[in-house]
Amino acid sequence: MAIAEVPRFVRADGPDKVTGSGRYAADINLTGQLVAKFRYAGVSHARITKLDTSAASAMPGVFAVLTAADVPDVIYSPVVPDRRLFAKDVVRFEGELVAAVAAVDAATAQAAVDAIVVEYEDLPIVDDLEAAMADGSPLVHQDWESYAVTGDTVQRPNVASFSSIEKGDVDTAMASADHVVTSRYVADGCHALPIEPRAVVAQWEGEKVTIWTSTQVPFDARAGVCETLQMPASKVRVIVPHLGGGFGGKCGFHFEAHVAALAKAARRPVKLVFSRQEEMVAPDRRREGMIVDITSGVKADGTLVARTGWIAIDNGAYTADAAFFPQLAAMHVAGPYAMEAVKVEASLVYTNHQPSGSVRAPTAPQACWALESHTDELAAVVGMDPVEFRRANIVDEGVEGAAGQVYGEIGLRRCLDAAVGASAYGDDLPDDEAVGVAISWWPSFPGPSGAYIKIDSDGSGMIITGAQECGTGSVMTLRMLAAKELGMEPEDFQLVYQDTSAAPYDTGATGSQTLLNNGRAVVEGAREVAAQLRDLAADQLEAAPDDIVLASGKAHVSGSPDKAVSIVELAGIAAEGEMLIGKGSGTPPEYPSVSAMCVGDQGLAGWAGPQFACHAVHVRLDRETGVVRVLDVSAAHDSGTIINPVAAHGQVEGGIMMGVGQALTEGTQYGDDAKQRNTGLLEYKLQTAADAPTIRTEFIEIPDPNAGPYGAKGLAEAPNVPTAAAIANGVAKLVGTPVRQLPMTAERVWMTSEGMSS
Amino acid sequence: MSFTIATTVDEALVALGAGARPIAGGTDLVVGARHGKAALPGDLVAIDRIDELGGVELDSAGVRVGALMSHAELMTDPVIVGSYTAIADASALVGSPSTRHVGTLGGNVMNGSPAMDTGAPLTVLGATAELRSVTGSRTVSLDELWAGPGRTTADLGELLVALHLPPAQDRCGSAYVRLEYRRAMEIAVVGAAAAVTLAADGTIASAAVALAAVAPTILSVDGVDQALVGCTPADAGPVVAALASEQAAPISDLRASDRYRRHCIGVMAKRAVDAAARRADGESIAVPVNRSLGIGAA
Amino acid sequence: MTTSYELDVNGVTYPVTADQGKNLLSVIRENVGLTGTKEGCDDCECGACMVLLDGQPVNSCSYLAVQAQGRQVTTIEGVMEGPEMHALQRNLLEAGGVQCGFCTPGMIMSAKALLERDEHPELDAVRIGLSGNLCRCTGYAKILAAVEATAVELNT
Prior knowledge:
The structure holds three protein chains of three kinds.
Chain A: H1 14-19, E1 34-40, E2 46-52, H2 54-57, E3 62-66, E4 90-91, E5 97-103, H3 106-115, E6 117-122, H4 129-133, E7 154-156, E8 159-167, H5 170-175, E9 179-187, E10 190-191, E11 199-205, E12 208-213, H6 218-229, E13 236-239, H7 256-266, E14 270-273, H8 276-281, E15 286-287, E16 290-298, E17 304-316, H9 325-334, E18 341-350, H10 364-381, H11 386-393, H12 412-422, E19 433-444, E20 451-455, E21 461-465, H13 474-486, E22 493-496, H14 514-541, E23 548-551, E24 554-557, E25 560-566, H15 567-575, E26 580-584, E27 597-599, E28 608-622, E29 627-638, H16 645-664, E30 694-699, H17 723-735, E31 741-742, H18 746-753
Parallel strand pairs in A: 1-14, 9-31, 12-13, 17-18, 21-22, 29-30
Antiparallel strand pairs in A: 1-5, 2-4, 2-6, 3-5, 7-8, 8-18, 8-27, 9-16, 10-15, 11-12, 11-14, 16-17, 19-28, 20-21, 20-26, 23-24, 24-25, 28-29
Helix pairs in contact in A: 6-7, 9-10, 10-11, 10-17, 13-14, 16-17
Chain B: E1 2-5, H1 9-17, E2 21-23, H2 27-34, E3 43-46, E4 56-59, E5 62-66, H3 71-74, H4 78-83, H5 85-93, H6 97-102, H7 105-111, H8 119-124, E6 128-133, E7 136-141, H9 142-145, E8 146-148, E9 151-152, E10 159-165, E11 172-179, E12 190-198, E13 204-212, E14 219-220, H10 224-228, H11 233-247, H12 258-280, H13 289-292
Parallel strand pairs in B: 1-3, 2-3
Antiparallel strand pairs in B: 4-5, 5-10, 6-7, 6-10, 8-9, 11-12, 12-13, 13-14
Chain C: E1 2-9, E2 12-19, H1 24-32, E3 50-53, E4 56-59, E5 72-74, H2 87-95, H3 104-117, H4 123-129, H5 141-154
Parallel strand pairs in C: 1-5
Antiparallel strand pairs in C: 1-2, 3-4, 3-5
């Protein structure tokens, strides 16, 4: 149902990227530029007893050394503001910034960093989620009660945000079940791991600062600079050159303010480029570790009647954007299933780990892995095939979901049928192979967004948008939407984007939202231009504007294709008078209301544009060693209308591969000191091309009236959700019991098969 | 500080005698320096353009493998693939195409990592190391050469110029297999090499097994020959697995626990013997065994 | 210690004065001034820095620049054939094998070396040939397809 016949969609930024001419943030170099280096805490929880930068400041070639004393004392972060640019008094994780240096070159900057004297008094390490929640646990934030949290956020000692979803009388419903199954699943944290480590360059001209940065969210980054350095938005310009991937890891505000402050103090441009090791340790964007306890009651006939869930999420030392994680995790443990009653409680627990933050579908892959593994256990208890069990219990049109939302036409059942049907599920397989199946869901995120559209005197189009391209191609897709409205070709449009001083606000490359929200803005802006073109053509063709059709680069009178004038000609006419300029923003779709009782509500129990998916994964197990290989994946996704099929397939394939890594090889390992032990890519193992499975994808296209243009929903995060769960169910079939830790490393699989626990 | 490009072994030896360190591909040196493991030596002599250090030559004593042979060359060299297949198996598993191109046998051996892939194959194939210095040359067994993790007994002035392998026997096969969590860019979690000679009746006439990443250096398993001679390859599996697991002295680290390593080294040893015996019996198993037999993540 | 030497990059000889321990990647990016070659890790593990040295793939982050004297270095900027894109570049774009693009230059260098040593690689040989280049965006599917398409295009 693609809106245009574009068998091959070539990215506007593609030629830059394949020829090496494209500039990324680390490729920007300014005259007189200095190099920034950070001094990290290096310990996980300690009180600073001495901080002396005098030796560093005195070194030749050092232009600036900054600590908390040198910047405004601002406590920031959305919803749960709990951190400062630099540690003040206490450090709470190893990657926390204590000081920053700008110097003539990297060696000098590093020498200065090393010359900073910091002495600590150890504080007790908090790194066990359950112990942290127990009475009397040492606190990560002594003064947590003083933080200015917003909205309905509920906090407790060492709990930054608590949410629960409760519908019906769960005790009574559970008592009516014939079988009650309780499971515990524990997921390690992991990383977004874009291949580009982040880079920031800042340059001041008078009172204004321009910051080139590898962020997914330029407007958020600007807001962070404004808040922490106490500057008006008009004085801060954030530009993103090409962005080398994000996956959530570059969402939020990170180091832009530190570099800007250094540049101001040094009176020179300053550039920061992270090493891979810094990229692993310092940002507040790690996928959260999680403990999930689920209890479900089922009737003997396989009807799911009740569920309770208890979830502890590793927040790390600061809350970043994670305040909504408990509610999203609770939604995922409730899952896309119908049942009488449900009660799920989730806590975002402070620890002395690196802070968690939104990584591609935050909380969902782990929670889905737990829920879908548990679901296969439920099917086994009642003696049903796991796919049949799902068919009997999933939400569908007109059915009320766990939080009480009643769904319109949705494609979950069709996704299940399509993915299972395309797989070897049910076939006679070798005894070391199996197909595991998992279903999933994920919301779309409506939000404000804006774009301008113009057509220049020669007929060339320009989209000036707040949207941010992180590789998904959704910004590229905007050209297709503008072209369709204006009867032009996508190639007729250039993009001006990733510059906060050029375009209206957009949330950025986050929450799978670009097409959903900026698409709406572009369509609206293009329609304004279309109306202008129709007026101009109507004059030229002596027809009513409503009778003018824009197609194939021309405006013609409806029913008379020969009575036409080219858009190029109209653009020339317009350039002499009222120019062809449109603006778009539009009203975001509404979040549906729900009937469940939501404590600590973050507004994410009712989902606009809910997306659904099913993955069926064919795995092979080396029984003697526990090594699992993914052979092929059949995926089916309901993300509404698919506008750009090439980009959409790319999202699904990339999401699946990330899911394979999370399932098998990607997990943060911590020492007793709460520091990460695998901060290099040899020990933190991404999947390679050699591991790439065959992937078959089918889109179940059901236009959603309460979503994006032409009924498109979000897509970028959803494919990352069910893969690990489907792999788990395949492995559980072969091992005979679920592997209850994620990643399901070879050693863990082997131990499970040997009946050992780790 | 100095950087010399040597084009003959003698030039290189003079530089080494003056205190320079040799660099071929340099990967371990450069990465090690960047990770702060060891500063890059101030004086370096590049040995990657010394023709004498390349090549695989048959001689009366067997085969001379130049220290500069890259993993990419070894994995396709007809002599190595044909008669010393375990070395080819190991070379084909090293890192990625680029590391196989840059990385050399000599670098692998002299780096002295207990996880080196080519070490166990060289050991079971009876390789000796030819070291040269300005004062002369000597040939040492690998057992004598490797002193511990990252350490050798070679003097600073000595250069590894070649590995020598005894002549290939009839009905002899070898193989190297390793445990890996993904199909490329791996380092051995544990690895095992076996060399097996079959008697006319298909039983094992002689056998050797060596292990990677389960001890401070490559571990040659004791008692394999006595235990396996006369066994069918099928019967040999459990025996060699038990010997390997018993003698292994693994550590726990990021890659695996000692318990898991001890278990898996037995599995790898068994598989190495199986593949080596099948090759000895004339079966063609493509290099590397890991991928052609679906071992580990293959 | 600073040392001076010449480096042949994409057929042009550049005088280089740099620290003896400086890696090839940094010399290409900072001294030669070509930024198409990327840095993604510290330790030879991601392949974003891949260049060709006398036609063979090398992780330039872990190779001393002084060692590249007298050899031909090819970077992504040297892949274009005059004004035309190399078939690999074109096929990657058309197949949708480029997303964020950060791994793309290194991926192209590895693919080019692969197709030069194996004109008709099986799919698994392509997988292994590209296994030193991590990509987080694509799941590799469209990259593998583009390389296979290029092999067919160049050798039929």
